[in-house]
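Re: that backbone. Tokens:
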């Protein structure tokens, strides 16, 4: 019988009150059981109730577990027994709901054992982590094997071309892969299988990939779904190739191709911990062999240091943006920094040193010592500090089975931690934790590097910032040769305002350090007051957010960029003031001006979204907006400094929008399908839904702040319903999906609205259906659409959706544009539409020119292109291919439908006017210029317009 005493330690009044609630419930329901316990056992049970709500709740629900716990289950845990016990309990079970119940109850019982042993210090931390990891692995594999048997029996066995059975392999990532799982962790998994083929022995053959995708979906549900017994594990599948937009399961060859051709640095880092779960087989060997060249390079790979530094920088930004404080995982000196230190050595030297190719952090750090890469003192400090933080993390999570790495915000949980860790007071434990984090951060900076820049004293700018007398301040400026009469009045007035603001002692101290440094930057440019006017608006917004003041104080590059960008563009200044998290983007100027390549926006966004929990809709929406804002800032920075020409600015803004549309649709799909299921006619990975861009989105010509003209299509023409518990008609499903997409775009979060979406170009306009069936869309375009709608269709472009929908949309668009038309009647319609548009939208003072709406402006050029496509596409099919004006004019010239010189004039005028429009937006001015400034272009456009479309 287990009767170990809890010693003479006393529990606090709050802990005793918490324990009493559970003790009362247990006595009410199982008095006979309580009376059978010895005095020492009763005392220990009360103590454990005081320490953990999770244990208290589980044991009150399952009091029958208590005798076995005291009998032998607390002495030690036989990890290798998990597999056999689960296999025995699941043998002969055919009902999936019963399987869920068995898995969850087994999980909860073992977690009670592990938590109890942790709180009472019956096991070393490493033992607990191994227990938790072995339990997770056993549960995942038991669920996988039960599903495989069940599905093979009903659908046949997936086999390769030689008839050899194929099994689903599961890569455990992160701490599960390293056998160092924390108490209430989600688990990151990747599903794969060896070879393509099809099932044998079923009613009909199914491709292996299709079989395993269905199996993977059921497996995630088996583990992830919350029932009355809770869940087994929260499962995160976003580390798989292509993230959420990729197939749930890929073959070995698909995995290899992806990592060889598209694998990113962060995926290399993740793969260090990857481990095939379950009994080891030749397939496990093959899988690890094909992943090894991607993770470990044959040479000493010092580029890994820079990649890890960038990743840590991103985490630091995330901590700041999410306002995470007291986070022992992600904060400076947290658990993640130990992992970075060890994994930096593994990535650099693992190609040459096979002993470093291991998933365990404890194993790898000892290998580094043996190889002479880390000194004994460094290993000792890192290990001890890491063990303390992991112990705190485990206990924090075991209090209530919650995934948290944030130190408690209430007294009760601090008392629980202090009791379990033998600390006298909260202050004592805090000091131990902070000392451990300081040691870790020092080693992290020594290995991976950080941003420790010495403060320099800027004496004269300090005097200027602290000056109160006008004469004194003006004398300082004169002495430094700064001739700007407006700088001191602006600075003095702002200083007076700041003095009256409540910003706290830390904020005040940081501001007093920052301002002399910032004044150094400002006085190095020709018109300091002009820049300060904009910079002060940004500072106004961050005065109470000391972390951002510190960011500017510690990063000279960020200060320089703040000044130069605010001077170059009031629009950028406004963005920085509205959304201070964008200041993070200024830290590394090289990265700021290194705009994302056009093909990479999708993968960059997928990686960005991995940082936030998949099921936290609010954070996902916020992350989408933050990604858009930060990428838009990079584009604008490259624009104002001349790195990007206007055509490329629009390309980048458009491809950014496309990447966001893709993720918004995926998120909307996940939400609607979780509630209603999906249309039964769809194949795996199909949605039957499409987004078509019109106007600037369609023409790849988006500007800053452009709204999106979109039309939604679907191909759910068949009658039928979705396959979920709350089934609805297919048409209704797509309507709900479209509404959800619009909601995700338009909801205003801390980072504003994602995009304003205009749906008025859909069939029948505002009175039409929100989403159209593709063939109905085609019929409307053929039979009911007005000429102006066909003009709009010239600019339409497929932006997201299934390949089959894309092909069909392009066929319909080409067919409509290539219809034979009466060109005289067409010209009359186009002219009248242009006049109506000008009457309605042109509001400009005499002598001024509206870049879009004035005669000879952008709209005239667009109407010329649209008319020529509609007039000639019947005879020249290639005209229906492009949706952007520049390539339409190039095609017209190639076909000799427009003289080369005319096409060139129109293209040059169009690019010049758009370029001016971009510049005016960045200066926060209306798109209006004096007529004389654009006359050379506008007069030529007017003449060409009259020549082609008549008076």
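Recovered sequence:
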């Amino acid at each position: 019988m287990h009767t170990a005493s809890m010693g003479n330690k006393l529990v606090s009044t709050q802990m005793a009150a918490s324990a009493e609630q559970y003790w009362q419930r247990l006595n009410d329901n199982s008095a006979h059981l309580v009376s059978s316990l010895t005095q020492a056992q009763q005392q220990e049970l009360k103590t454990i109730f005081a320490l953990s709500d999770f244990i208290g709740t589980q044991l009150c629900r399952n009091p029958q577990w208590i005798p076995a716990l005291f009998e032998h289950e607390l002495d030690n845990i036989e990890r290798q027994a998990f597999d056999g016990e689960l296999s025995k309990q699941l043998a002969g079970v055919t009902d999936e709901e019963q399987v869920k119940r068995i898995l969850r109850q087994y999980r909860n019982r073992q977690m009670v054992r592990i938590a109890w042993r942790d709180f009472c210090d019956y096991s070393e931390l490493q033992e607990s982590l191994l227990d938790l990891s072995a339990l997770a692995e056993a549960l995942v594999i038991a669920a996988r094997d039960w599903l495989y048997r069940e599905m093979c029996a009903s659908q046949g066995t997936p086999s390769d071309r030689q008839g050899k059975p194929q099994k689903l392999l599961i890569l455990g990532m992160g701490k599960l892969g390293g056998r160092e799982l924390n108490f209430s962790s989600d688990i990151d998994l990747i599903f794969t299988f060896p070879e393509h083929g099809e099932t044998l022995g079923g009613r009909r053959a199914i491709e292996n990939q299709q079989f395993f995708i269905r199996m993977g979906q059921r497996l995630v549900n088996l583990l992830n779904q919350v029932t009355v017994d809770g869940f087994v594990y929260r499962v995160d599948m976003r580390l798989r190739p292509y993230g959420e937009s990729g197939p749930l399961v890929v073959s070995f060859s698909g995995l290899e191709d992806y990592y060889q051709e598209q694998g990113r640095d962060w995926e290399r880092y993740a793969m260090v911990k990857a481990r095939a779960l379950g009994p080891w087989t030749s397939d496990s060997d093959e899988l690890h062999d094909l992943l090894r060249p991607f993770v470990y390079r044959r040479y000493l790979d010092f580029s890994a240091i820079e990649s890890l530094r960038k990743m840590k920088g991103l985490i630091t930004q995330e901590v700041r943006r999410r306002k995470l404080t007291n986070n022992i995982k992600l904060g400076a000196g947290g658990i993640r920094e130990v992992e970075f230190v060890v994994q930096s050595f593994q990535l650099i030297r693992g190609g040459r040193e096979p002993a470093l190719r291991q998933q365990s952090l404890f194993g790898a750090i000892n290998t580094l010592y043996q190889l002479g890469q880390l000194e004994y003192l460094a290993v000792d400090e890192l290990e001890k500090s890491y063990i303390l933080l992991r112990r705190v993390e485990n206990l924090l999570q075991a209090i209530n089975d919650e995934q948290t790495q944030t130190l408690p915000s209430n007294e009760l949980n601090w008392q629980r931690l202090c009791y379990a860790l033998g600390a006298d007071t909260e202050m004592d434990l805090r000091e131990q934790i902070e000392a451990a984090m300081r040691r870790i951060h020092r080693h992290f900076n020594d290995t991976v590097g950080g941003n420790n820049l010495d403060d320099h004293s800027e004496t004269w700018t300090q005097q200027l910032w602290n000056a109160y007398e006008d004469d004194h301040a003006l004398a300082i400026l004169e002495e430094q040769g700064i001739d700007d009469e407006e700088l001191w009045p602006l600075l003095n007035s702002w200083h007076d305002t700041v003095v009256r603001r409540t910003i706290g002692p830390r904020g005040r101290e940081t501001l007093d350090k920052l301002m002399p440094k910032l004044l150094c930057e400002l006085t190095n440019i020709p018109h300091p007051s002009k820049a300060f006017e904009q910079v002060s608006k940004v500072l106004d917004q961050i005065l109470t957010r000391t972390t951002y003041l510190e960011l500017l104080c510690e990063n000279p590059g960020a200060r320089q960029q703040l000044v130069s960008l605010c001077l170059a563009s009031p629009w950028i200044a406004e963005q920085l003031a509205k959304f201070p998290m964008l200041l993070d983007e200024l830290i590394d100027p090289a990265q700021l001006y290194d705009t994302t390549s056009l093909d990479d926006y999708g993968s960059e966004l997928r990686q960005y979204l991995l940082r936030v929990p998949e099921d936290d809709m609010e954070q996902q929406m916020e992350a989408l907006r933050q990604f858009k804002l930060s990428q838009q800032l990079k584009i604008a920075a490259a624009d104002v400094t001349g790195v990007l020409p206007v055509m490329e600015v629009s390309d980048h803004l458009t491809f950014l929008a496309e990447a966001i549309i893709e993720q918004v649709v995926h998120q909307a799909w996940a939400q609607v399908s979780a509630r209603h299921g999906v249309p039964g006619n769809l194949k795996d990975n199909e949605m039957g839904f499409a987004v078509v861009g019109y106007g600037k989105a369609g023409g790849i010509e988006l500007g800053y702040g452009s709204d999106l003209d979109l039309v939604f299509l679907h191909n759910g023409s068949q009658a039928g319903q979705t396959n979920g518990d709350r089934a609805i008609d297919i048409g209704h499903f797509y309507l709900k999906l479209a509404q959800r997409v619009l909601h995700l775009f338009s909801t205003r979060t801390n980072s504003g609205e994602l995009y304003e979406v205009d749906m008025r170009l859909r069939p029948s306009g505002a009175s039409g259906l929100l989403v159209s069936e593709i063939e109905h869309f085609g019929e409307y375009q053929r039979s009911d659409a007005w000429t102006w709608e066909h003009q709009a269709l010239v600019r339409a472009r497929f932006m997201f959706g299934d390949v089959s929908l894309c092909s069909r949309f392009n066929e319909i668009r080409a067919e409509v544009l290539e219809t034979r038309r009466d060109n005289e009647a067409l010209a009359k319609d186009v002219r009248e539409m242009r006049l109506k548009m000008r009457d309605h939208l042109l509001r400009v003072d005499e002598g001024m020119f509206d870049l879009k709406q004035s005669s000879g402006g952008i709209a005239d050029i667009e109407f010329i292109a649209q008319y020529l496509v509609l007039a000639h596409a019947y005879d020249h099919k290639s005209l229906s291919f492009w949706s952007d004006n520049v390539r339409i004019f190039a095609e017209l010239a190639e076909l000799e439908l427009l003289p080369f010189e005319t096409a060139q004039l129109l293209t040059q005028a169009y690019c010049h006017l758009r370029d001016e429009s971009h510049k005016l937006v960045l200066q926060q001015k209306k798109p209006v210029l004096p007529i004389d400034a654009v006359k050379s272009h506008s007069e030529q456009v007017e003449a060409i317009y009259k020549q082609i479309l008549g008076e």
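The radius of gyration is 33 Å. Residues 35 and 458 are 75 Å apart (CA to CA).
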